[in-house]
Amino acid sequence: MPNWTDLGNIWNTLKELDLRPLAEEAEQPLVFAVVGATGVGKSTLIAALHRDPRTQTSTIAPTLELTLDSGERAQAADLIVLMLDATRDDFAREAQLFADWQRAGHNIVVFYNKMDLVPDARLVNATLAMWKGARVAWGSATDSTSLAQNLVPRVVDALNERKLALARQYPLFRAAVARDLINDTAFANASYALSTGVAEIVPALNIPFNLADMFILTKNQALMVYKLGLALGLPTEWQAHVAELGSVVGAGFIWRQIARQLVGLIPVWGIIPKVAVAYAGTYAVGEAIWHWYQTGHKLSGRGMREVYTDALARGKQIAQEIVARAPRPTRPRVRLPRLPFPTILKPRAKK
Predict the structure, then answer these.
(1) What ranges do the domains of the chain cover?
(2) pLDDT tens track for 141-191
């Protein structure tokens, strides 16, 4: 059987993949239009969109800051953020613009700003019917926590198909997009491990799934690492990811010996341990990269073990859930051809 390093070298895997579509997707311009009345907080929100929390520097991305009188120009944007002063209750002009944009099929998020100054939330609730069919968020443009909890999820949902470009160009969304990438890839690897584990239960399917598992799981991890690098603002060349993330990801592969022990795990111990390991190993790799981005330091061996242990416990829960929903395997039925009954010849009468 090949050594793990023959299959699990994430950088060799990257060399074999066509990464150009992902790079082009991440680099495609994404235009925000922030529209609102004078003094509503448009400049404050735009600054929050561009500020990188790690470096405290600002990225440059095309963003339109428009008053209500110039709201027609927002139609050129990929996403319109209609900002409202939550301390007011007269939004006649905003409602007119919203209706025009909605009829034209534009992507809109309505954001009630200055919620920290609202004496009674019922004043806001009374105006919600004006934005029927829109994603509505509320909070304060000066409070990063409220933005992360309310505005960010709605914007990510509105631009779900363009998450790489969103995170790359607007750092405010990097945490949410990175978390989605890590969770989605970990779940995908767990689901793949389940599918091959089910097949391994059936002895007639004599396929070297463990060998294929390590290749597929590593390929998915390599793509996750590259996508995370793009989302976090690294250069599009995969070689830059090697230089920047090589030692970080190396720490993430402490689980590789456990993965190698998956050989022979089915059917002796069952599917759940295999699915849990596939989830936990992938999650640990992503978490190592995210920790580095937030702190500038890679996880220690002890820290990685703690991350992996927590992920393994969560992986077991997820494994139990998806195994419970999966169809139960059945042994293939072998149908024998029907043979005609032999004809019994009567002995000939003697003459």
Answers:
(1) 4-21+172-325, 31-158
(2) 999 999 999 999 999 999 999 999 999 999 999 999 999 999 999 998 888
